[in-house]
Amino acid sequence: MYVRDVIHKDIPRVDLLATYQEIAQVMIGREADTVFVENEDRKVLGVVRGYDLRRAAADGRDIGGMSAQELMMDMDRMPPVNPNLDLVDVIRLFRNMHSGQLPVVERGEVLGVVTHSNVLDALSQPGVADRLKDSWERKAASVINALSEGLVVMDRDHVIREFNPAAERLTGRSRTERIGQKAEVVSLDDSPAFRVLTTGEALYDVESKLKDGRTWRVNYVPLVEDGEVTGVIQTFRDITEDKRIEEELAKTRDELNEAFALTLPNSKVERKLKTTPEYRDNFDPTTGLITITEVISDGGYRHVVNALKVLADLNRKGIMHLMGMEKDILVQAVIFHDLGKAQPDLEVGQCVNPREAFEPGMAHAERSADFAANFYQKHPDVVTLIRYHHHPEDALGDCPRHLLPMLRVLKLADGLSASITRRSGNITLEVREHSVFVREQNNHPDHCRVYGINLLTGRQTVFERLPLSARAGSTSGWPGGPGGPGAPSGTPGDLTVRTQGPLSRVAD
Ligand SMILES: [Fe+2]
Ligand SMILES: [Fe+2]
């Protein structure tokens, strides 16, 4: 039964200036606990409840001198009772509102009032309780039938008591065939349902491999009545296709890594990179110390692969069309840039000062440049880029000017690779004229920001600081907002570089 079945349209009203006495007279005359306060256009603005009058008197306020406007509660503080609300739900509102009468409102208009006594009268009519129970059961059944997930309820004797249409579709068995029958195990392993019956503890997101080759994700929730486990509710969906896509993505990622590996010049370079460890860590901003959380034995190799991916993304965005950019030079510089790196031997859990534990970047930059020049006869520009890849912007005086834009790209790819691999960073890139815009978020406070770098001048501008470790990909952080004056053209959300693979620490 609904509010519309018991609504009273003739509501007791007073105007805004009505006195306490006038309000009380209306309450007594209409046997009402609540009167409605309306303005000169007969629009109801609020209600005065008997509770409000008693409350004001108890507080010692001079209610004799107060108007309805001063005593009333505004309509927007009243609970939303609409004509289609179930009467069972209204009972709770009477108690919460200290009132036996509540206004019924639809689209901002007061239609009438619903009273506590009318609701109780309606609900106590013979047969109503049974009808309500039937109605709730019908609602529950329609929800269960509409679920896209399979739902099976098994009692403590392992007999199936409920089997919804999605379960019929997923199992290929009919409801009539299964209800009343013993449950069957369809997975390769024993079903956790039996364990849940014993322990009474729910299990969620259990991946279950089926005998027919499919994979389901299943929730097992105990059915508890009067404190006793009387059955198990199982909901499940087929994730075979999701798993297939996941595996394909992993395969594509591996193939991509292999393709990048093909750019490596020989097995000696590959071996050096694959045996140079890198470290994943947690940074403590108060002490400046890092705690090693993971050792990646082939971290040097992963760092180069990720830097090449960043370079490939910048290439897709047109950076190689800019004056001063030579793709082959940059690729070679990325491959050889850390070849001379000498890493310390650290263990998981070790807490160190990174400035003391790691060799200064300029030392391995010199060494790498020498290797590239003398063992691999690399182009002089490649060697120079490698030599300067750890020099700060204000110490590049000796670096040939024509290489500066490429050096800035190399340093950017190097740093972003470190962010991605070492700190699970999410990076979004955009190229606009001679500037690269970067949105970077990871677990280090210095690397959570939106910034731009002009490749010709080296000028860096930070537009916004971002919270730690939040997911990147939102477009809101672009300077001026998406489409704003500073925003790159295109859709930044499409440009996220999500480089995969184990994470490595890179002293970039
Ligand atoms: Fe380096
Ligand atoms: Fe590096």
Please characterize this protein's 3D structure:
With 508 residues, this protein is an alpha+beta fold. The protein folds into three domains: 3-123, CBS-domain, CATH 3.10.580.10; 147-238, PAS domain (Beta-Lactamase, 2-Layer Sandwich), CATH 3.30.450; 254-497, Hypothetical protein af1432, CATH 1.10.3210. The chain has 17 helices and 19 strands. It has helices at residues 20-30, 50-58, 68-71, 87-97, 116-123, 128-146, 165-171, 175-178, 193-199, 240-261, 267-274, 299-316, 327-336, 354-357, 361-374, 380-387, 404-423, and strands at 13-15, 34-38, 44-49, 73-74, 101-106, 109-115, 150-155, 160-163, 203-209, 215-225, 228-238, 278-283, 290-296, 351-352, 426-432, 435-441, 449-454, 460-465, 496-497. The strands form five sheets. The chain has a five-stranded antiparallel beta sheet, sandwiched between helices. Helix 11 packs across helix 12 (299-316) and helix 12 (299-316) crosses helix 17. The protein is elongated and about 105 Å long. The protein starts with 12 loop residues before the first strand and ends in an 11-residue tail after the last strand. Mean pLDDT is 83; it is low at 470-508. It binds fe (ii) ion (2 copies). One fe (ii) ion binds next to helix 15. One fe (ii) ion (FE2) is lined by residues 303, 337-338, 414, 506, 508.
